[in-house]
Amino acid sequence: MWSWVSECVGMSRTKRIYMDHAAGRPVDPRVLKAMLPYIKSVYGNPSSPHSFGQETKQAIEVARTKVAELINAEREESIIFTSGATESNNLAIKGVAYRNKDQGTHLIMSGVEHMSVLNPCKFLTTRGFKATSIPVDQYGFVNLTNLEEELTSETTLVSIMYGNGEIGTIQPVKEISQMVHGKNAYLHVDATAANGQVPIDVREEGIDLLTTSSNDMYGPRGVGALYVRKGVRLGPVTHGGGQEWGLRSGTENLPGIVGFGKAAEIAAEEMPTESKRLEKLRDRLIKGLLDPVPHSFLNGHPTKRLPNNVAVRYSFIEGESILLDLDARGVAASSGSACTAKTLEPSHVLRGIGLKHEEAHGSVLFTLGKQNTEEEVSYVIRIMPEIVKRLREMSPLTPKELME
Amino acid sequence: MYSKKVMDHFRNPRNMGEIPDADGVGTVGNPVCGDLMSVHIKVKDGRINDIKFKTFGCGAAVATSSMVTELAKGKTLEEAEKIGRSDVADSLGGLPKVKMHCSNLAADALHAAIEDYRKKKKAER
C-alpha cells in the first residue's frame, strides 16, 4: 500500500525495514521448502483409503503432532485445523455457546479482545445469549475482581487473550483459569499474537480452548488451529463431510497444514533464543523512542509484554502522519489511530486502557521479527525524533515552549 | 492509497505556520476526531495577501490544508469563499473515500478565517 510513496519523495535507499509483524509475517524458507512437495506432487485427499490419500493423511498427522507439542497438548487429536485465527475464534465461541446452551447462555470476554472474538460474542447476543465485557486496567490487564463478580452459574465460556497484539500485555492466564473453572465455565484463550513467542502450556495453565495461527509463527497464511481439551463440549460451525472429527468439515488445506506444522516445529526449537534476542531489541527500541522525546509514553506494561511488541504514543501528533513519515524513510509500522482504521474510530484496545481519543491518535506500533537487527533498531531510534519534531511543528496543539 | 500530489503536499507542505498579526483566523475540527486545522490570513485591498496553516491530523488533513493555502493565496475574498471541499480534493488528484469527510476540512478553515476577518472589520467600523 505504501510502497510507491518512497519513490515519489525521492528517497535514495536500497533497504526497507519491516516492523509490522503483527499485521503479517514472511514465510520461513524452511517452511516453504517443506510445503512445496504438497503443492507440486503430493495431492491425494486425506479422507481417501488409497495410498495417495494415506500419504497426505500421514503428513497432516505429523503437522498436528508438531502443533500439539508446541503448546504441550495432551494428545494430537485436540488440534483442529482451521483457516486461521478468525475461524478458530468463531468456532470456539459459537461452538461452545450453542453446544452448551442447556447449561447456560452467558459469555464473558475482555474488552481488549480481537474483533474476531468481540464480534462473534456480539452476534450471539442477537441469538438469545448474553455477553459481558470485562474492563482492563491502564496496562491492559483484565480486572480479576470484576471477572469474579460477573461469573455466574449461567456462564459457559470466558474468552481472554494470551497476549495483546496491539499493546503487548500478557494476561495471568493460570489465575484466570482457576477463577473460571471455579464456576464450571470453559476458558478460551486467543493466543494468536503470543504462541511461538512465549512458552504456552495448555495443561499447566488450565486452558480449555486455544486459538493459534500459522502466519504468526512464520507459516503460510490461511491456516490456523483450535486446541480443544478432551471432554470440552464443542459443536461445529461449519457442517459438511465430517473432517476434523466432525468439528470442521471441508477438505484439509494440505500444503498450509504441512507448513504450519513445520513452522510450529521451528518455533519450538528457536523460541528460547529468539525471544530473548527480541526482548533486548524491544527494550532498546522502547527506550530509544521515548527517552529523547518529551510527552511520549509507552502503551502496555513495561515487562509483562510480548517479546516483539513496541507500542508508544506521542502527544500533539497523529499516528497516520507518523506512519507516512516513517514509510518515506523506509520503515513499516502500524498505528491504532482512527485515521488508519476502516471504521474511523481509534482502536478499542487503546480506548480500553483508558486513553482519550486524542491520546490514542498519536500511537505507533512496531512489532519486531526474526529479520530485524540491532542496526535497524538504531536507524528507527535515530529518525523518530526528527519525525516527531516535523509533525509537532505543524500541529496547532503543540505548546509553544516545546518548540523553542 | 494517496495520490502523488497528496504525498507531495504532506511531505513538503506549502505555507505552514502562523501569522502573528493575522487579520483573520479560522480553526475547525477537534483533536477528539483526530483532525484540527487553523488557517491564518492577511488581507490587503480585498485580496488574501498572505496565508498560513497549522494542522493536527492524518496525511490527507495536512495535504488539504497545504493545498487550500495555495488555492487561496492572491485571490479576492469573494473568490476565496467559493473554494469548496471538492475543489481542494480535485486539486490533489482525489482523496480516498473514507477521507473525503473527516480530513477534508481545509476549505471550512479558510471560510472561517475569512468570516473572522469580516467580523473584525465590522467591529472596527
Task: Compile the SSE list and pairings.
The complex is a heterodimer of chains A (404) and B (125).
Chain A: H1 5-8, E1 17-18, H2 29-40, H3 51-70, E2 79-82, H4 85-99, E3 106-110, H5 115-124, E4 130-134, H6 144-150, E5 155-161, H7 173-182, E6 186-190, H8 202-205, E7 209-213, E8 224-228, H9 254-290, E9 296-298, E10 309-314, H10 319-328, E11 331-332, H11 348-352, H12 357-360, E12 363-367, H13 374-394
Parallel strand pairs in A: 1-11, 3-4, 3-5, 5-6, 6-7
Antiparallel strand pairs in A: 2-8, 7-8, 9-10, 10-12
Helix pairs in contact in A: 2-9, 3-9, 4-5, 9-13, 10-13
Chain B: H1 4-11, E1 24-30, E2 35-44, E3 47-56, H2 59-72, H3 77-81, H4 85-91, H5 99-102, H6 106-124
Antiparallel strand pairs in B: 1-2, 2-3
In a nutshell, what does this entry contain?
The complex is a heterodimer of chains A (404) and B (125). By secondary structure, chain A is of the alpha/beta class.
Oligomer: heterodimer
Q: What summary fits the major beta sheet of chain B?
A: 3 strands, antiparallel
Order of strands in the sheet with most strands of chain A: 2-8-7-6-5-3-4
Which geometry of chain B do the CA atoms define? globular
Strand order of the largest sheet of chain B: 1-2-3
How would you characterize this protein structure?
The complex is a heterodimer of chains A (404) and B (125). Chain A has helices at 5-8, 29-40, 51-70, 85-99, 115-124, 144-150, 173-182, 202-205, 254-290, 319-328, 348-352, 357-360, 374-394, and strands at residues 17-18, 79-82, 106-110, 130-134, 155-161, 186-190, 209-213, 224-228, 296-298, 309-314, 331-332, 363-367. Chain A has 404 residues and is of the alpha/beta class. Chain A folds into two domains: 5-27 and 272-403, Alpha-Beta Complex (Aspartate Aminotransferase, domain 1), CATH 3.90.1150.10; 29-266, Type I PLP-dependent aspartate aminotransferase-like (Major domain) (Aspartate Aminotransferase, domain 2). In chain A, helix 9 crosses helix 13. Helix content of chain B is 46%, strand content 22%. In chain B, a hairpin with a 2-residue loop joins strand 2 and strand 3. In chain B, helix 1 packs across helix 2 and helix 2 (59-72) crosses helix 6 (106-124). Chain B is globular, with a radius of gyration of 14 Å. Chains A and B meet through helix 10 of A and helix 1, strand 2, strand 3 and helix 2 of B.
